[in-house]
Amino acid sequence: MASTPMRDSADARVGGLSYLAPQTAEPWASFIEQIERVRPYLGPLERWIETLKHPKRTLIVDVPIVRDDGTVAHYEGYRVQHSLSRGPGKGGIRFHPAVTLNEVMALAGWMTIKNAAVGLPFGGAKGGIRIDPATVSKGELQRITRRFTSEIGVIIGPDRDIPAPDVGTNALTMAVMMDTFSMNRGGTATGVVTGKPIALGGSLGRHEATGRGVFITAREAARHLHVPVEGARVVVQGFGNVGGIAARLFHEAGARVIAIADHAATLLNEVGIDIPAALAHVAAEGSLAGFPGAAPIDIEDFWQLPCDFLVPAALEGQLTAERAAGVRARLVVEGANGPTTPAADDILRDRGVMVVPDVLANAGGVTVSYFEWVQDFSSFFWTEDEINDRLERIMVNAFNAIWRVAEEHQVSLRTAAFIIACHRVLEARAERGLYP
């Protein structure tokens, strides 16, 4: 089983962590602060706000395998179900050397908010293993995936908690997870994961869905601000299945993508980068290193480039307060989960930079995962045009609803998204009551 491509970043191997280094704030602390900012807007539902600060279920598992050389190795894995009030848990599985329980808790919380903000009938969950996939063989990675799936199998299932790909995992990872769960259950359960290969019940359009959602929400925000996409200057951090696809869609819409970055290179071309050529280079070489169509620049200079759209699409905690002070973008569109710290959010707001938050901007992936889950249950599959049309409709409607709340309360788009999501989650919690 291959350990490529990455889901939320172009890559994140140990040797490439330098460009991702600034993760200064604990992700869970950032999530809690974002929840607290919504407290004044909850009305009677405020009495339930503490439920958002306590994940419903946290599972920590040991993942032992016999390595190819006969030694036994142990890896630590997690599955966190933050909220199940609105439906089964939904969220990705991350294989990365920096995975921590704190991070997975925050990512699960953001999935709760994301699913509710766009109106999907899911709660929030997330999982991961602290491992660098590049350091193990394909056989070892498959054994790790199977053992991890068996360990968390007690809490996942098509109507309980549905994993998906994330950083360091891909469609083949999901195929192995589905097969392992099915073998343990004694019958094929295609709906236990999403982001699967098409031959195993995967959905058309899923590969591009997150990047497509980023572009759709960027376009809608630009329309409200009267910023034309054609001819716009675009800067993208992360060049995998999110950043790379978003960059391609901006390029196809006539924008100039002037700077791109991955774990191996940070590149600038003021005239505009040939995005199809850059994607082809990454597909062939594994990274942007050596791409001849742009010149290397320092990563800190990257954040200060004058542009219309800045798309952080790598890992969380990248846009810190220090970096936000130098941002010269008109719009920040979050392709990654939690890339902007709360302190950076405040700085950007005060400087008049609009942020399209992750819980809206990158919800295209989980939306098409929802479509995949529905198709698996019905065994009736849609065309890619039907999927893209449905994705467009859901993303645009969600954006417009969030925009209206932001205008009504004079708050940021992030706070507006949290207001809508928290109302939906806490209303469900209140109406269900407590058992026993």
Write the layout of secondary structure elements.
Elements (H helix, E strand, L loop, with lengths): L26 H10 L20 E10 L5 E12 L5 E8 L4 H17 L6 E7 L7 H15 L8 E5 L5 H15 L20 H20 L7 E5 L5 H10 L3 E6 L4 E3 L6 H11 L9 E2 L2 H4 L4 E6 L8 H4 L4 E5 L8 H9 L3 E3 L1 H4 L2 H15 L5 H26 L3 H20 L4
Features:
436 residues, Rossmann fold, 7-stranded mixed beta sheet, 5-stranded mixed beta sheet, disordered N terminus
Explain briefly what this protein structure is.
This protein has 436 residues and is α/β, with parallel strands linked by helices.
3D structure, described in words:
- The chain is of the alpha/beta class and 436 residues long.
- Among the domains are: 55-192, Rossmann fold, CATH 3.40.50.10860; 208-361, Rossmann fold.
- Helices cover 41% and strands 17% of the residues.
- It has 14 helices and 12 strands.
- The protein has helices at residues 27-36, 101-117, 138-152, 171-185, 206-225, 243-252, 275-285, 299-302, 321-324, 342-350, 358-361, 364-378, 384-409, 413-432, and strands spanning 57-66, 72-83, 89-96, 124-130, 161-165, 233-237, 256-261, 266-268, 295-296, 307-312, 329-333, 354-356.
- A 7-stranded mixed β-sheet has the order 9-8-7-6-10-11-12, with helices on both faces. It has a 5-stranded mixed β-sheet with strand order 1-2-4-3-5.
- The radius of gyration is 20 Å and the shape is globular.
- 54% of the residues are buried.
- Residues 1-19 have low confidence and may be disordered.
